[in-house]
């Protein structure tokens, strides 16, 4: 039997291969494990409430915020008037829990959407009718409180020759709703809305206003607090990505036959989009003890 001879060249080759193999094994054995990202901190309801209170206490106009229960964060939206220094003031106010803030920027300025023009008129301003309501045999409509604050009497036209009736109640800031009574019996007060439930995040909604007409979008947040740049803080609002413009204040937010909200304010316009806030309709109905028509 012939024995295969191992030459110096073959032995050297085998030695190199063995060294490479050992090197690979060694490298594999000592390689550092992959870095694992630290879990995001969990913020409970008490800490989130404290952060929300801190944002309010920072007293920065042009801000709006709500607690996102799904992520355990306070979502803070700031308009174009909020400087880096003002944002830093909010962060400092939140202190050790500043990581609970999710900050988003939006174009334009948060302001009540009030303007002179053509819709329901009062006090030199124009707003939009929200929902027709009734108590007993008396008919009313609800609109925005910042509209009710500026007018004691409302008309259907800019020359203020066709009377609607007086403002019976109005609340702004804090909330943003008003009640106007129909004193002109020749005016119709049609309805069509069957319920006023709570809105929910992700809900497809529409809004109608006297300036921009009807536009759609979705609910992005609930129980939002907005601190308008022009002054006044309102709590418990519905936050949406539906556009709106000055004069749309008081108009309805709805989902089919569900009456959801009254247009309060926001930023942007219906060309570029924006963020708009709504006073829940059911809060206004409860405050004035009225029912949808």
Model description:
The protein is an alpha+beta fold. The protein has two domains: 45-105, GMP Synthetase, Chain A, domain 3 (2-Layer Sandwich); 108-293, Trypsin-like serine proteases (Thrombin, subunit H, Beta Barrel). Helix content is 20%, strand content 37%. The chain has helices spanning 8-30, 45-58, 84-94, 145-148, 281-288; strands spanning 63-68, 73-78, 101-105, 111-112, 120-122, 125-127, 131-135, 138-143, 153-155, 163-171, 177-181, 204-209, 213-227, 233-240, 252-255, 258-269, 273-280, 291-292. A six-stranded antiparallel beta barrel has the order 12-13-14-17-16-15. Helix 2 packs antiparallel against helix 3. It starts with 7 loop residues before the first helix and ends with a strand. 43% of the residues are buried.
Characterize this entry briefly.
It is built from five helices and 18 strands. It has 293 residues and is α+β, with helices and mostly antiparallel strands.
Which tags fit this structure?
293 residues, alpha+beta, GMP Synthetase, Chain A, domain 3, Thrombin, subunit H, 2 domains, six-stranded antiparallel β-barrel, six-stranded antiparallel beta sheet, 5 helices, 20% helix, elongated, disordered N terminus
